[in-house]
Amino acid sequence: MTMEICNCIEPQWPADELLMKYQYISDFFIAIAYFSIPLELIYFVKKSAVFPYRWVLVQFGAFIVLCGATHLINLWTFTIHSRTVAIVMTTAKVLTAVVSCATALMLVHIIPDLLSVKTRELFLKNKAAELDREMGLIRTQEETGRHVRMLTHEIRSTLDRHTILKTTLVELGRTLALEECALWMPTRTGLELQLSYTLRQQNPVGYTVPIHLPVINQVFSSNRAVKISPNCPVARIRPLAGIYMPGEVVAVRVPLLHLSNFQINDWPELSTKRYALMVLILPSDSARQWHVHELELVEVVADQVAVALSHAAILEESMRARDLLMEQNVALDLARREAETAIRARNDFLAVMNHEMRTPMHAIIALSSLLQETELTPEQRLMVETILKSSNLLATLINDVLDLSRLEDGSLQLDIGTFNLHSVFKEVLNLIKPVASVKKLSVTLNLAQDLPVHAVGDEKRLMQTMLNVVGNAVKFSKEGSISIIAFVAKSESLRDSRAPDFFPVPSDNHFYLRVQVKDSGSGINPQEIPKLFTKFSQSQSSATRNSGGSGLGLAICKRFVNLMEGHIWLESDGLAKGCTATFIVKLGIPERSNESKLPFTPKVPANHGQTNFPGLKVLVMDDNGVSRTVTKGLLEHLGCDVSTVSSSEECLHVVSHEHQVVFLDVCMPGIDGFELAVTIREKFAKRHEKPLIVALTGNTDKVTKENCMRVGINGVILKPISVDKMRSILSELLEHRVLYEAL
Description:
- The protein is 51% helix and 15% strand.
- The protein is built from 19 helices and 19 strands.
- The strands form four sheets. A six-stranded antiparallel beta sheet has the order 3-2-1-6-5-4, sandwiched between helices.
- Helix 9 packs across helix 13 (553-563) and helix 10 runs parallel beside helix 11 (459-475).
- The relative contact order is 0.05.
- Mean pLDDT is 76; it is low at 1-11, 259-264, 542-550 and 595-609.
């Protein structure tokens, strides 16, 4: 009964099973909540870029995870559980206690910092100050750059150094608000600095200070702007009035151009590096000081001024060099015009003298040759032969002088053509043999087997060279023999130490002809050989002096050989031991297709063909009465029927189809002989009625020959003319109807 009453008065609490169920459900949701909080913290830490206490959040997250794990493990303790569950539960709770205590202690220290306003303000102030410094530096650099560009533009707007320096002071004074700015330049001696330019004073006093002052050495030894005392000599530019405090002063060096290669007016002659000194003064009685960016601006401007000054100095020197060059060009142009005038005058003189000298020579030689064919006593014949010999020598001298003149002024050119090389040697031999036979000298000619028959070159110059060399051998030999050897020079024998400038180049299109003339004559002193190729120079031996000559032959031969890309030299063992003359010339090899079609080139051999020409009607036109009479006498001596005229009008009136040959002097003053020749040819329509026209000329230039060929003249004969020469001319002319004597 008692038990029932007790049961009836117990409070109505939920049953134990229900309580256990509520705890179970609560622990489960607590565990889920604890596990979700760390996930949210991880997300916060990941997204936050400026939170300074991330490690504290990680520690706090670990504490929550352990708390959640404790509540989760606690689910297994509501039922009968094993000892393992109890141990795990105990471990989790111990770890949770440790972590929770550590977190609590950390939060005690961190929370005041997070709540402190001063900490946040200090952090922000530091950041703001750093940004202000960076912005200030940027603004300073921009301002300095702007001023530098402005100053550089103003300074380099001119290349006059005085304007550059004055502009520099003005622009610096305006930009930096200076009281004074001055430039000290080194004197010529380099021992002092002179006040040359100032900002405020129009006329600087120009006083000097020693360059070895300590303050100047201090500035010159640094490439930066240096603050100096306002009381130093270079800073006392203007006197201070009253009790004002002087402003701060800076000085900077201005490098000057290295002047050793330039001579610039009123600049010091410096061989080592020197500087000018620029002094800048802030306004007096002001609290203003020099800032870093202002000093940097001054340094940059000093460098720019140095560059501008160097450009100005180079420009001044180049202008001075240009003016000097212009003066030299004017002088050279004047000298060139004077030289051209002198050359023209000389050529005109030579042309006139050539014609005027050949005319009397023509008379002397022609009349002497006519006189030689008359009945003369031995004494008279000797006199006539002496006259002829002297006349021929004088004619040769005239030719040599004219050839040398044209060689020296460069107007002489080679007349290149194809010719019979063997015939040239044989003709030289035929011309030399009569002279050699008089002196009882034997002359032999040896032509090598491989010597080409035909060659391409200047036949006349080659023959003239050989005649001169062989003629010298005959002239300087009293007895004995003379040998002429000609062969093709081999490549290994072309180079000669005596001719370092001779560079033969073998080729399939040409060959080098080597001619060697050896005599047994008077010989030459080896020391005198180099002089013989100089014009008007002769050997000093008695044999040479007795033989006569102008001393032009070998000089002209050397020029001819050089024109033919060759070399000439002499060899002798001494006086009375003979001499060997050797020359090498370059000749072309004609094409085989043209070799068989070589044009006929008539020569003027002596005593060839007819001896007289009875009944041959000839007309002679010459304005010179003596020359006209002499030519008529030569032709009448040969049996010709001769008519003479002195003008072109008379010639056109007299000439008829009966005249077989017409001799014209084509170089008469005031008369165009070439036009007259054309008119004569046009007068006769039929070819068999046209007379043979022969030009008589004293001009040896190539133009005369070309003009004659252009207008159709049948032959060109060079004055003077002897009887034998006239006889040969008429024979060749009547046989071949063309005759161009080599000019």
